[in-house]
Amino acid sequence: MKFSYILNGIGWADVHFDFEGKKYYFGPSYLCEPLVDLVEGLLSVIPGCVEEDELIQESIFCWNYEPMGSEWRISIHDPNSLRIHVVEYADIDTKMGEPEILFDIICDLRSFVSEVVKTLESIIIKHGFVGYRQTWYTHHDFPISGYLRLKYYLQNESRYPVEELKEDGYIEFKQSRLKDELKVLLSLLDNMD
Question: Distance between CA atoms of 35 and 96, rounded to whole angstroms?
Fold first, then answer.
């Protein structure tokens, strides 16, 4: 299995997904947030990645190719497998007409998460955070929190650690360790040579 997401100029991406000898291509535009939707969609269905009350059975999001587009449905098939169901519409905004099924697959959960993490790392290395936002040309930044949470899940099979704190005895907030987050990001420098 291979998955790649490459920015292809201002506001466009080339997404390739190879699975069991079949190749799929998507060309989403800045009219949607495909990278954020994919990352958050994955996190929201994987037990242990989010709070129990935030876990959902199926994540649904659309990628816009202007005017075509695809609707993605991601869910856990079993503890080790992910189901990815993708249909394509001639006009994603109206969703008129019968959608064409591009694929409906069951794949290894860890393998897919690994591929997504690798592609997120390649984007960070190539563009940086500010460069990503300016190249993608939207109001959303690179999904750094999602990247850190997926990477941690891949390494530890558990949710990213946060500490629950109270300030002044009643203001509740959560805190992650910046030092640990920076270590993960600094380790990417080893891949830049």
Answer: 25
Q: Which residues pair with 69 in a beta bridge?
A: 64, 89
Count other Cβ atoms within 10 Å, centred on residue 34. Answer: 25
Q: What average pLDDT is seen over the chain?
A: 93
Q: The whole model's pTM is what?
A: 0.92
Confidence tier at 192 by pLDDT (50, 70, 90): confident
Coil/strand/helix, residue 143: coil
Q: Where are the alpha helices (DSSP H) in the chain?
A: 34-45, 109-136, 144-156, 178-187
Q: How far apart are CA 75 and CA 123, in angstroms?
A: 25
What's the burial of 10, exposed, middle or buried (CB within 10 Å: 0-12/13-18/19+)?
exposed
- Reply yes or no: is the peptide bond before residue 67 cis, omega within 30 of 0: yes
**Residue 159 in tokens:** 């949710």
